[in-house]
Amino acid sequence: MSATGLPPDFLSRLDGLLGPGGLLTDEADCAPYGIDWRRLFPGRAAAVARPSSTGQVASVVGLCREAGVALVPQGGHTGLAGGATPDASGRQVVLSLARMNAVRAVDPVGLTMEVEAGCVVQAAQAAAEAAGRLFPVSYGAEGSAMVGGMIATNAGGINVLRYGMTRSLVLGLEVVLADGGVVDGLRALRKDNAGYDWKQLFIGSEGTLGIVTAAVLRLVPRPRYTETALLAVPDPEAALRILAAAQDSLGDTIQAFELISRCAFDLLERYAGLSGPLPPSPWCILLEAGSSLSGLRDAVEATLGEALERGDAVDGVFAESKAQAAGLWSLRERITECEAHQGKSVKHDVSVPIPAIPAFLEAADRALAEGAPGTVPNVFGHMGDGNLHYNVLVGPEHDSAAINRLVHDVVDRFAGSISAEHGIGQYRVDELARRRRPEEMALAQRLKRALDPDGLLNPGKVLRV
Amino acid sequence: MSATGLPPDFLSRLDGLLGPGGLLTDEADCAPYGIDWRRLFPGRAAAVARPSSTGQVASVVGLCREAGVALVPQGGHTGLAGGATPDASGRQVVLSLARMNAVRAVDPVGLTMEVEAGCVVQAAQAAAEAAGRLFPVSYGAEGSAMVGGMIATNAGGINVLRYGMTRSLVLGLEVVLADGGVVDGLRALRKDNAGYDWKQLFIGSEGTLGIVTAAVLRLVPRPRYTETALLAVPDPEAALRILAAAQDSLGDTIQAFELISRCAFDLLERYAGLSGPLPPSPWCILLEAGSSLSGLRDAVEATLGEALERGDAVDGVFAESKAQAAGLWSLRERITECEAHQGKSVKHDVSVPIPAIPAFLEAADRALAEGAPGTVPNVFGHMGDGNLHYNVLVGPEHDSAAINRLVHDVVDRFAGSISAEHGIGQYRVDELARRRRPEEMALAQRLKRALDPDGLLNPGKVLRV
What we know:
The structure is a homodimer. With about 475 residues, chain A is an alpha+beta fold.
């Protein structure tokens, strides 16, 4: 072993495989790859391999296996759970997919698109739009996040209600296995029941079972009409009644049904000077519907009118232009930033069965008031798919891990998930192991051993071997 | 071993586990479980275990493992690939899930439903309808097929274009593993990225990796308006242009886009006396769209009117009532029956990238004309999702396996699938092994070994160990 903790000729062999510009070893060059953007998971990369082809990825993985060196696959490095950040040992190599960024093909009739793992999500969206179609996965980090990371984390975002998570939009996958073998399943087929659908294993497993190098994604038709509205509601029960009524009257034209608490609006006003178009109310709903049919506005107006008549909504406003719609969305999107200005917060990305949301909120608020007095819940999230960002504003005296456990205990009581969309990474490894049933963890271990017997793919993420 | 080829006390121990009515051993009682409904795969069950609970399933699997006896899970036994039929050895035990048929819960707001594996698909649909929602998986066998088999085969059907395959409608799963362990993942969550999504492995793996005992299914809002139309088109290229235009104008309101050849209409007329509402044409399209919005009819009329003006369609008719819509659908649904009256046919359930459909049809027709003169292609299927039933009417002089290979060779040239929705079962095992890349087959073998090391779960299906 050299001073780096790596076998002596490892880096020169890696350099030879990757060619000019393919390997970073300088500490300053490597530093940004070693720490996540929230700076919660400081690590250090021994080197950064930047392959430009699937063949190079396979060679790098093969060499690392031979040398017993661990690899951490990395895309845009925008994750919230430290899933793409190396540990602090300085002995892990980051495998950046950033140079593999081509959009290889777009098929507007078959509604498919083939892209490489390092393609930025926004670039994939733009390629779909240029062909008159929509790639509907959309989330805050889409300007930096890459398709490989989106798939490895099964990213969610604002359109899950209508279009599902990333998983439901992946038709084909090319993967490099832990032994350096390449499995090419880049089929552009909407239906394919020929044998095990092995690609499902790699979606959402955060680079611990294999490395995604390219994918065939599913596109959808672009809705011709979009309606966006903000509604003031007295409580989460009323929000739930509006959701149920909207499912009857608007069906699956509903694209987003976001719940935003008064606390979040207070933060928006204080730190971003955004007051919102409605007088203060305990809760708001941001609803968006889309359709190819021109009757959308009338149907949304009727649905919201009935909610006002019933008293489930106390006030409401429609976006009358794209700019107004963007303004309403910016309220939703700037909450996290304002939360950061406020000070320290303990974040949760949980989901519960949708009808249980009001009871969950009540129980979590009560648990916090009792177990962590002085904290303030700042709740917002994708109510329509059961996913709440139940964040907690805390002072220096509060213990983040204790608050995590307290909130997750309540999630468990409602048979929910402690990671609805952000994944496990290194952040939630212990919480997951503590809470998932032993049979599920044993099954996960079995899959990990079968696909990465030497434990060299993103070790320490999702589960400890 | 006894005369049955089973260990001497095996059946009495099995009987003890299952209680009264739980075990069939009489040859006449077992016979129907031993052969598929098309009578293509004659087998013989040593016994039929009919557990009434997940605990009993686990006990049966545990006992079989201890005794080294193979198990063949079976639901409604309606599959087309022999996936649920035992072999002819008389040493395999059929595990029928039919007694586990409860609908445990329906949640119309959260849009979920928990059902047991033996629940008939139609009963699950009815439970959703009673709650004002839709369970959208729909296929010919739904009156007998069971939820467990639907999941084990990742069933497709007529609504895939809008709602996806079964996989996209499974939120949670309970599975009994090969070692008799139970993994309970019956979470009613729309979003859950907490750890590996292991349930995906069991969906579509045809009972070879584990036994599905219960599931949480996703429901969708019921469309308020449905429009069904039949269009006469000159050729598949014109059909493709209509599909592309409909994606622009009707978006994802399109639920079905079926292609039916003149040959199929001829069979319908000859053997069912059904003439259809349009004069004969080379091809027809059966289009169905659904929406919550009242403007659907106008939009569909405009789209089809433009197709007529462009000459992509030469004639067309709308269903003006539910009865008329059912009449149009019965044309589509009775093709298989009329094909059987005609005589012997060699069936294919293939998919290709959608824009390649016209070229695929031309190439397959040419290959047949050259390689199997005297045969007649009878083509119909789900054009909107790329899945064609490219069936071939043959005489006694033709070799079915050779025709399979001939058609599948053409599928391979278009990077398609030799089993779009029916699965592999025992029918396509060798064709799959011949055609899939060795890396994919090796990965499948690795998963099989990891989850069923003794090879006792549905041996010989999907892949040979």
